[in-house]
Amino acid sequence: MNKYFIKSEQLSRGLFISFEGGDGTGKSTQAELFYEWAKRNFDKSTILTFEPGGSSFGQEIRQIVMHRKSKSSKDAITAKTQALLFAIDRSYHVDNVIWPALKAGKTVITDRYFDSSVAYQGQTVGLSDESIYNLNMFATNGLLPDITFLIDKNSVNALALAKQNTGTKYDRFETQDITFHNKIRQKYLDLAKDNSDKFNQINYNDKISSSEFNNKKLVDELNRWHIIDGKADIKRVHQSVIEEFLQFYDSLKAKLLVSDSGKANLSVD
Question: How far apart are CA 197 and CA 218, in angstroms?
Fold first, then answer.
């Protein structure tokens, strides 16, 4: 039974939920656990996806940007190329996986979205936050998550777990030193605390209004970022995610009830 889910004409699409965090923080585990909870308790049509590589086309790009070893400095992937490859994957992912599901009214949970590019690529390729935002807003038609869970964890412990899970397979980011991963963690925390989505007013697609992509009227006043302490055990972290989500959704429902006052289309599914 989807006991929390409500329908409203004020929601122009399904809810879009992202999980972010550094390598080894447990965000993928938490995304999977929340997906299972959401299917049972919130929206049985919920889908779970991930980046990079959340499509067959994306898997090919993931292999290049994450696991390809350069044979020489001349063969190395340049900063601009890396940023463009991630954006290409994300554009295809939105067009073929995320947006069709949202447009159909489904809840979409993604393990990473373009906040990962801001956190990681700003460190690895030296591009400005604004450059990365501009590129990704163009690639995604300005589609932003309604709520983002940042799973935060000490970088030393997180990196050790990430390397243990990866084994001997080369990973472009996990090979970086602890200083790099500390910077990633801090960048995520800065993004979450800023919570401004300062570029979200930009509309790069003149043919499609931003309101078609984002439930902006209803979520602008709600905090998108929610920091979850990742050092607790898996079950406790999962419970924290659920609690934060329900608080967010209670606030959203209150706005919906006001907006839809007197309208018959607001109902429990």
Answer: 15
Rg (CA), the chain: 19
Residue 32 near residue 127 (C-beta atoms within 8 A): no
Contacts of 138 (CB under 8 A, 6+ apart): 87, 204
Residue 155's Cβ-side half-sphere holds a number of Cα atoms within 13 Å equal to 17
Return d(Cα 175, Cα 221) in angstroms, integer.
39
Q: Give the domains, in start order, of the chain with CATH numbers.
A: 6-268 (3.40.50.300)
In this predicted model, what pLDDT tens digit does every residue of 81-122 receive, in sequence order? 888 888 999 999 999 999 999 999 999 999 999 899 988 887
Pairwise pLDDT comparison (4 vs 1), residue with the higher score = 4
* DSSP state, residue 67: H
Q: What are phi and psi of 102, to 5 degrees?
A: -65, -40
DSSP secondary structure letter of residue 75: G
Q: How far apart (Å, rounded) are the C-alpha atoms in residues 220 and 240?
A: 23
